[in-house]
Design a protein that fits this description.
The protein is of the alpha+beta class. The chain has 16 helices and 9 strands. A hairpin with a 2-residue loop joins strand 5 and strand 6. Helix 12 packs across helix 14 and helix 12 runs parallel beside helix 16. The protein is globular.
């Protein structure tokens, strides 16, 4: 072999190795050096491939709370190839939700959204930007403004009375009731009438069908396993739950489109004689959809997705929070009695408790707050950082997914005395009774805080206070089995109660007399 050729081959290989070193190995070394320079939040020891998944139970908020006791109020958790930063202290939550709110004003999406037929049209899960700001402004000024909520007072009153009459009938017949189902029906009816009130009045079967379809979507979404929501299978559909969810959502889409066309036809035909004076949510959204001067052009998909978000968010959270309140009252008869005494002294027995009575019922407010502290309807707040940031002295890289564990924050023993006990009296103390549901105090965040706080908290508060007040005022209760209600949450990340509330109601006041 020619030695000159041999030397040239070696030179060529050496040249290639140098290029590879700069192009491939160089960035790797730089990445390692950069990582070493960063001060990252602490993290439990991880296993290869699965990360920390083995440390996380199906009740994610509780599992993360347990880990936080050992690894601190801000920590990193790795679920296969995705890393989350988990915040479990009020002072750190305040940094994210107040001090740097704009940086953390987007949400990351859980695995179930992979199967959403509306793609990125969801307002609840949308990134912070022009569309989100436009819809939030619409909600604050028109859809859920104080004046609009006042227009819906009669809807809440009528549906509450309907619930009480149903329970009174069961009392006369000596029949048990599934209070969980009754409360879900109440919340569904209220939301449906607020959203498409004209359809509820003119076509009750259609309204019933949309409630059934939304319930089907909720049940399909609840069947996802933990690893499908946040774990390695979130981009796949191995168990077929995604396909079932998409089919349920397509059925909803068809009916929602039909309802929208009926609204539009009625407007075109000027059939206004059959309309009530007040506008429902569909009226307002269709007006915005047709407005040529609107800042953002809504599509039909936007409207249908907004309605689905509205049903899913409002029905699930309000129902679960009301169920938890009733369950805690059943398990604490002394609290039940004190609450009833307060209602009797303020409202009396000649009329039903009303929304205007709430400011005069501090113990009722305390009961609701204590329930939301122990059983927040959204125990994990989702956020995503869109630029490099320091939080609590740690480096948070752009794109990092954040969990704010409000379940852990509202059971923090450094902030709350006997944090795992149901003690409504704690909210009668001067230092805590000023805590509201708006997230102004970062140790009490039942509906979140900042830009992405729950927009329906005022509505949920009205429904919860009046419903619980009426159930205590009008009925005595016997729980099936005679023992205490089994206080247990469902799996994954939900704050819903796991078991149905099967009860025997006994009428205490005659509804014909109030």
């Amino acid at each position: 072999m020619d030695p000159l050729v041999d030397v040239s081959c070696y030179c060529f290989l050496f040249f290639i190795s140098v290029i590879v070193s700069f192009v491939v190995i160089g960035p790797i070394i730089k990445l390692i050096n950069d990582s070493n320079k960063l001060r990252l939040p602490p993290s439990p020891p991880a296993l290869p491939i699965i990360g920390h998944t083995h440390l996380l139970s199906s009740r994610l908020p509780e599992a993360l709370k347990t880990l936080a006791y050992r690894y601190g109020p801000i920590m990193r958790i790795q679920m296969v190839n995705t890393t989350y930063v988990v915040v479990s202290a009020a002072i750190t939550a305040e940094e994210i939700l107040k001090t740097h709110d704009i940086v953390f004003s987007s949400k990351f999406c859980p695995g179930t959204t992979q199967h959403n037929i509306y793609g990125g049209l969801s307002f609840i899960n949308s990134t912070y930007g022009k569309y989100w700001r436009f819809v939030k402004k619409l909600c604050m000024t028109k859809l859920f403004a104080g004046s609009q909520l006042k227009q819906f007072i009669h809807i809440r009153e009528q549906e509450t009375l309907k619930l009480l009459k149903s329970l009174e009938k069961k009392s006369k017949d000596g029949e048990p009731c599934d209070l969980s189902v009754e409360l879900e029906t109440l919340t569904q009816n209220i939301i449906c009438r607020m959203a498409i009130g004209r359809r509820c009045l003119e076509n009750p079967d259609q309204a019933m069908e949309i409630r059934r379809l939304v319930k089907d979507i909720v049940e399909r979404a609840a069947k996802f396993y933990f690893i499908e929501v946040y774990g390695p299978l979130k981009k796949f559909d191995i168990f077929g739950n995604g396909m079932k969810l998409r089919l349920a959502t397509w059925r909803y889409d068809e009916l929602a489109e039909k309802i929208m066309k009926e609204y539009e036809k009625e407007e075109d035909d000027k059939m206004k004689s059959s309309r009530t004076e007040e506008k429902d949510v569909m009226d307002i959204l269709l007006e915005t959809y047709k407005d040529p001067d609107a800042e953002v052009k809504l599509t039909r998909g936007h409207i249908k997705c907004f309605f689905m978000d509205m049903f899913l968010a409002a029905v699930d959270t309000t129902t679960s929070a009301t169920q938890w309140t009733v369950a805690e009252l059943f398990n604490h008869p002394q609290v039940f009695k004190r609450l009833r005494d307060e209602i009797d002294s303020v409202v009396g027995s000649k009329r039903l408790v009303e929304e205007s009575d709430i400011p005069s019922l501090p113990y009722l407010q305390a009961v609701i707050k204590e329930t939301l502290r122990l059983h927040p309807p959204g125990p994990l707040l989702r956020r995503q950082c869109f630029e490099d940031m320091k939080v609590n002295g740690y480096d948070i890289k752009a794109g990092t997914k954040i969990f704010i564990n409000v379940y852990a924050i509202m059971r923090d023993p450094s902030m709350w005395i006997e944090p795992d006990k149901f003690v409504p009296e704690r909210f009668l103390d001067n230092s805590t009774k000023v805590m509201d549901l708006k997230g102004h105090n970062y140790s009490f965040l039942p509906f979140g805080s900042g830009r992405r706080a729950c927009l329906g908290s005022s509505h949920a508060s009205f429904v919860m206070h009046v419903t619980v007040g009426a159930l205590v005022q009008c009925l005595d209760w016997k729980f099936e089995g005679g023992g205490k209600v089994d206080i247990e949450t469902v799996k994954i990340y939900s704050g819903a109660i796991a078991h149905s509330l099967i009860c025997y109601p006994t009428a205490r006041l005659s509804l014909s007399d109030v």
